[in-house]
TrEMBL record:
Pfam families: OMPdecase (PF00215). Keywords: Decarboxylase, Lyase, Pyrimidine biosynthesis. SMART domains: OMPdecase. It catalyses: orotidine 5'-phosphate + H(+) = UMP + CO2. Transmembrane segments: none annotated. It comes from Variovorax beijingensis. Homodimer. GO terms for biological process: 'de novo' pyrimidine nucleobase biosynthetic process; 'de novo' UMP biosynthetic process. This is Orotidine 5'-phosphate decarboxylase. GO terms for cellular component: cytosol.
Amino acid sequence: MDSRIIVSLDFATAAAAAGLVRQLGAEATFYKVGLQLLTAAGPSVVRELVAGGKRVFLDLKLLEIPSSVAAAVTAAGQVGASMVTVHASGGSAVLRSAVEAARRFPELKVLALTVITSMDDEDLREVGVGSTVAEQVLRLARLAAAAGCNGVVASPREARLLREMLPPGMVIVTPGIQLAGDSEKSDHARFTTAAQAIDAGATHVVVGRPIARAPNPADAFAAMRAQLSALR
Ligand code: C5P
């Protein structure tokens, strides 16, 4: 088992998600539920994964006023999520209210989303941010650490800098992962292999299409796991 790989359940129905979970079997223990599946299928998807012994990264990407963020984090804790995401760009008050709400749930980690991996420097400029992606990621990660968050979400490209900068216990989750040898360009402006991301300092990787759309998802998962165990 390797809980460093979080498999993203980006599906339109609970049945499709359950199909992938079944295919991957006991070896895959950590799943991401995002806005699509949560909206389509409801929170029972999370409860069922947790009841089946899986851990759930509930990717709510919260950006709201502090009291609403706190209420949503509480709801995430109540359905049994292990990780929940909040946009760091919401600022310290939002991050602190998320951390405060999560205290009731010892298993629940609050992760601050820095800059989504599809954005580049030009996209940041468009929304009024003059910094580069790397500068912005580091700025927001510092804010998240100071607010007491358990970790951050960033692209693998920033993982090494983040590892050097953040306190040792902090979680670094990176999406933007491709299978080794897969040169096909996805919509990630910043991507790498799982092994490169972990080697650079990520504690977990989020992987969706490279596993879900592989001819044999269980084989793709096993190959990725083998690459990670070779790192140890
Ligand atoms: O690309 P892949 O299917 O592996 O994406 C898995 C997850 O990574 C998505 O559910 C999404 O939340 C996240 N992602 C991201 N930035 C992108 C593409 C995907 O953060 N550009």
